[in-house]
Design a protein that fits this description.
Layout lengths: L1 H41 L12 H15 L1 H6 L15 H35 L13 H26 L19
Helix pairs in contact: 1-2, 1-5, 2-5, 4-5
């Protein structure tokens, strides 16, 4: 099970990275086409008019996908911002209790996020909602990664809950540079 979950988090993070790369490619192509057109105009030629239609919308969809799919991987890697001034002063048992409380709150919030985004995507599919920009596609398509990323985050938080219950350090404490250990 551990290999499956770690693989799920890594695959989710890798897909997020690919969408970030996609943003770089789309924006770079648009910038290069603008530079080419401006260069042609500056030497007295006519512009080619190359453009990527709706590149702003495409990159927006890619950003949402990358952001949500990266959540669980970033949590497990200890990459989320944590303010641990208070928790570092606590002993082992109170610290474990605070971590369990925090992760429990995260589970509730991630569960709500997953539930409500799933309902939003279902409604978009049910009513055949379309995006409102120049690029018209079914709205459920760019919104679906929000549900998938939220669900994977929920799984990761439940994973962390059981890790803490079992007496081990949460994986997200890696981001504390080893300062937080629940098993000292």
């Amino acid at each position: 099970m551990r290999k499956f979950l770690d693989g799920l988090y890594k695959i989710s993070g890798a897909i997020a990275a690919l969408f970030l790369l996609g943003i770089c490619v789309v924006v770079s192509l648009q910038v290069l086409s603008t530079i080419l057109d401006n260069g042609l105009i500056s030497i007295g030629k006519s512009a080619l008019g190359l453009t990527i239609p709706s590149y702003g919308e495409i990159t927006g969809f890619f950003l949402v996908t990358a952001s949500f799919l990266a959540l669980a991987y970033t949590l497990r890697a200890g990459g989320h911002v944590r303010v641990n001034l208070f928790i570092r002063m606590l002993g082992d048992k109170p610290r474990r209790g605070v971590e369990l409380f925090n992760v429990s709150c995260g589970i509730i919030l991630a569960g709500m996020l997953t539930w409500f985004t799933a309902n939003m995507v279902y409604d978009a599919w049910r009513f055949n909602d379309l995006t409102s920009g120049a690029l018209v596609i079914a709205e459920w398509i760019p919104k679906s990664p929000m549900v998938i990323g939220s669900a994977i985050l929920l799984i990761a938080l439940i994973d962390e809950f059981f890790t803490i219950i079992s007496g081990k350090d949460p994986s997200y404490a890696k981001g504390d540079d080893g300062e937080l250990s629940l098993s000292e």
